[in-house]
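Researcher: Here's the sequence for the chain we discussed earlier.
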Amino acid sequence: MDSKYILKTNKITRIFKKEKAVENLSLSIPENCIYGLLGANGAGKSTTLKMITGLIKPTSGELIFNGHAWSRKDLKDIGALIEQAPLYGNLNARENLKVHTTILGLPDTRIDEVLEIVDLEGTGKKQARNFSMGMKQRLGIAIAILNKPKLLILDEPTNGLDPIGIQELRKLIKSFPAQGMTVILSSHILSEVEQIVDYVGIMSHGVLGYEGAANTGEDLETLFMKVAAKSIGDRRVI
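Model: Thanks. This is the structure I predict for it:
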């Protein structure tokens, strides 16, 4: 990884009560790539992403964003879709986006731009509550990219999607690096991630077991299982 890094985590740890959800995690994420953060449910992926987005604080360790220590000011350059999309069900796509452009002080022209990017410009007055799951996910991503972030974080974005929705979302995500966005994609669906990522980090029991370029010739599922097997029993209670 000789590229410039948009994000590095330096031995970040997060402890909940007496359990280490994430332990001494050091990630290196290059600019303008798609980085797959992989792990089984409970591996610490969501906790890691919540630390990067400022939703929770690391118990120890340091986050480096774009060459400097992370601060809340950096949130203007970070977009995120973690868990469910933050939608108002009684509003249409444009109205949902208008709420956020008002909060962010962005021009309404940005609404048209992101609706085109996520292919929702033809939804008209249809309320978000009547959207398919795939449409809701794309609208959530539209909200996340309103501020033209340098880093876009997507936590399990294909959960609940049908094959067509997954294919549409895959195409959308692959388009982002060319627009100047680095994507961190968290998932436990290896076959899906393998098709779009440039780099992978594999977590198990809160620990990083592997980080490197994707498509190195080794089957991702085999590598994943090696990491999982190695870390069994490593999770510690203090």
